[in-house]
Amino acid sequence: MENARFRPLEYVFWACTLLPFLVTPSYLSLASQVAVTALFALSLDLILGYAGIVSLGHAAFFGMGAYTAGLIAKHYWTEPLSGLLVAAVSAGVLGYLLSHIVVRFRHLALIMLTMGFGLLLAEAANSASALTGGADGLQGFHVPGVLGFKFDMFGRAAYAYALAVLFLCFLVARRIIHSPFGLALRGIRENATRMPAIGAPTLAHLRKAYTIAAVIAGIAGAVLTHTTSTVSLETLSFGRSADVLVILILGGAGRLYGGIIGAIIYMVARDQFSGVNPQYWYFWIGLLLVAVVMFLPNGILGGLRALRKKPQ
What we know:
This protein is mainly α. 70% of the residues lie in helices and 1% in strands. It contains 14 helices and two strands, in the order H-H-H-H-H-H-H-E-E-H-H-H-H-H-H-H. Strand 1 and strand 2 form a beta hairpin. The chain is globular and about 55 Å long.
């Protein structure tokens, strides 16, 4: 398919993701956090931007992957790639089980349902303090590195690891959305009642998309655990689910790169605003969000595309 081919600007974008190694080496730890957040946003975009499933509890899968990777590293082994695989499977299983309920609802009921599942899992993790550490978080483990490269305080290996996982998952997501399955998801998003008339199993497709998104979110959580050697209840919090939704609004949902661009803008803005005003930095984030929604209702990428298509 023509749309599935990489464009020259995309090569430039991914080449630019290597610039932090040379230009801002002191910010590589932040860059790794950006890559993890971008991966998490990419997972939500698969169900929100392409399948039309609005979720306020997507952090459940992120936290599932994070805690799975942390428990494996603490009690079994510290090799990250196999732990990453197990975390992806655990998040995928959770996503598949919940998908049988989630895909049967739409609109406000769907929002409340996904938020409820997220809050339930967060409270369950808080209550199971003997396993998860509760409010103190899961501590007492250390992931030394990946493929012989050590995770150090400078963040070089951490950023390389997070960026590599982000790029591989991006390739998978790109292949999915440019496939007939991805086209069917967009059809379901536009009109779910008419898709069965042309032979598309709507609920089955939505379950698959929800499970794939859960797997990618779990991978993002596991990468965070491996690069920080800690897991907290914040990985399951409502705030994380809300933040990633804000990120998609900023970048533009349903545009593949929207989550990545939104994550870069949001994380860098948060870092800078919190440095300038540690107590009220959320005010500036809110102001940025209001400005984007008012002047760029389809997100930054949507606004740029409209500007490019505007007749001269």
